[in-house]
């Protein structure tokens, strides 16, 4: 019987790319986005006059907090570049453990967006409060605020639902890449299985791990020492040289 996880397992993503290629592209994309954000934050910290707050009251009260927030955001961007680079390297070099931090970040990010959707359902008035905090010159602000609260909640939930669906698909792609890389790293080995009768050697390539009669995966069997292998007597002694062969 096929498990539900195996039904969703695929080596393709976006209809044409391999999961390794998709994970590499996704990791590079995250690195580029966070590198741009980090560059903007570092520039803002280096030249605060250029990015100074326009409101004098906010500038006097929140200067220290603004600098602290930018430092935290810079550290988060740097961490995201590191995690994305690890995922890219792990998918390219087929190291499954390097993909796990990026996968955990994706799950955490999807969980946060789900909490946002739940909070909108529980507290629908937060949308109106958020719209009132927008600048006066924000495009179509008056038209949006004139809409009914139910319609706003529906539009926002539909938008968040599309984002969550896309994020869940990317999570599935990275997870399939992790399973593919882990399967290759555990099956591409030369395996010797010692039994009571003989010694069997097999080389597995791109195949699922075989299961022995005792229920033990062949990919988990360690290689026996060379001396022990040579000391195993053969089942039937070979005939002496020159003796006639009888079928």
Description:
With 247 residues, this protein is mainly alpha-helical. Among the domains are: 17-51 and 65-93; 98-197. The protein contains eight helices and four strands, in the order H-E-E-H-H-H-H-H-H-E-E-H. The strands form two sheets. Strands 1-2 form a two-stranded antiparallel ribbon. Helix 2 packs antiparallel against helix 3 (56-93), helix 2 crosses helix 7 (149-187) and helix 3 crosses helix 4. It is elongated, with a radius of gyration of 30 Å. Keywords: Cell membrane, Cell projection, Endosome, Lysosome, Membrane, Transmembrane, Transmembrane helix, Transport, Ubl conjugation. It is found in: Cell membrane; Cell projection; Endomembrane system; Endosome, Multivesicular body lumen. The chain crosses the membrane at residues 21-45, 72-92, 99-124, 144-175.
């Amino acid at each position: 019987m096929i498990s539900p996880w195996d039904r969703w397992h695929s080596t393709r993503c976006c209809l044409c790319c391999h999961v390794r290629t998709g994970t590499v592209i996704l990791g590079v994309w995250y690195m580029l986005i966070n590198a741009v954000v980090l560059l903007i934050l570092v520039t803002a910290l280096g030249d605060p006059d250029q990015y100074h707050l326009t409101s004098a009251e906010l500038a006097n009260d929140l200067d220290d907090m603004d600098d602290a927030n930018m430092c935290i955001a810079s550290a988060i961007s740097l961490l995201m570049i590191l995690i994305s680079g690890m995922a890219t390297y792990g998918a390219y070099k087929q190291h499954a453990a390097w993909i796990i931090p990026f996968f955990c970040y994706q799950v955490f990010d999807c969980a946060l967006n789900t909490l946002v959707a739940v909070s909108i359902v529980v507290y629908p008035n937060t949308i109106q409060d958020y719209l009132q905090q927008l600048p006066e010159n924000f495009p179509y602000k008056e038209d949006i605020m004139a809409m009914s609260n139910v319609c706003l909640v529906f539009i926002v939930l539909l938008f968040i639902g599309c984002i969550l669906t896309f994020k869940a698909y990317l999570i599935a792609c990275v997870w399939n890449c992790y399973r593919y890389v882990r399967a290759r790293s555990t099956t591409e080995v030369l395996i010797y299985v010692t039994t009571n009768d003989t010694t069997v050697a097999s080389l597995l390539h791109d195949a699922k791990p075989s299961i022995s009669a005792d229920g033990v995966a062949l990919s988990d069997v360690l290689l026996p020492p060379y001396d022990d292998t040579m000391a195993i007597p053969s089942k039937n002694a070979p005939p002496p040289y020159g003796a006639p062969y009888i079928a």
